[in-house]
Amino acid sequence: MEADAELVVRLQAGDETAFAELVERYHGPLLRLARAFVPSRAVAEEVVQDVWLGVVRGIERFEGRSSLKTWLFRIMVNRARSTGVREHRETPVDLTAAEPAVASGRFTSGGQWARPPAPWADGAEDRIEAKALVGHIAAFLGTLPEAQRRVVLMRDVEGLAPAEVCAILDITEANQRVLLHRGRSRLRCLLEAERGKS
């Protein structure tokens, strides 16, 4: 796959095939992230279409101070926020969360694990089971509070660095860590409960 830097040069030169490659490479990730900001897939599709229009209009001004992926995600976040379809505003750190990040019963009074997380083996049967859990994980992501879901998607699904997530969402490093920890912890609890049923 062509490096993003080379793709940018081609885009800035007006190469239409470069734009098609860019859309093929990033449409899915942009759409997944847009769904964490807007109430429906249709609105998410509109937001992503606005991103592509913004890229066409603004690629010549891209200076490379961030990665192309970060730039695209930042445009998407700005477009999603400016649509005005959000029904409510939220506190980014999710200070209203009633549950702790990890259930207190998981630790002894000395701070040690009372019940450590069970390691997942890497045998063939476990890989088959892991494939089955992918659908559950996608569904569980949808149950996370929006701020946590956004950070988990960016970090664990899209592979963005912490600094990139902070820049895109305009949050602090500490805020990003708290949201990521809480989101991952909630997913782990949901997965453990699901595995306990089988």
Q: What number is the mean pLDDT?
A: 81
Shape: elongated
Q: Mind telling me the CATH superfamily name of the largest domain?
A: Winged helix-like DNA-binding domain superfamily/Winged helix DNA-binding domain
Through-space gap between termini: 40 Å
Major sheet attributes: none
- Quaternary organisation of the protein chains: single chain
Q: In percent, how much strand structure appears in the residues?
A: under 5%
SSE topology:
Blueprint: H1 4-12, H2 16-34, H3 41-58, H4 68-82, H5 124-141, H6 146-157, H7 162-169, H8 173-197
Helix pairs in contact: 1-2, 2-3, 2-4, 3-4, 4-7, 5-8, 6-8, 7-8
Keyphrases for this structure?
Rna Polymerase Sigma Factor, Chain: A, 198 residues, Arc Repressor Mutant, subunit A, 63% helix, 8 helices, 2 domains, mainly alpha, elongated
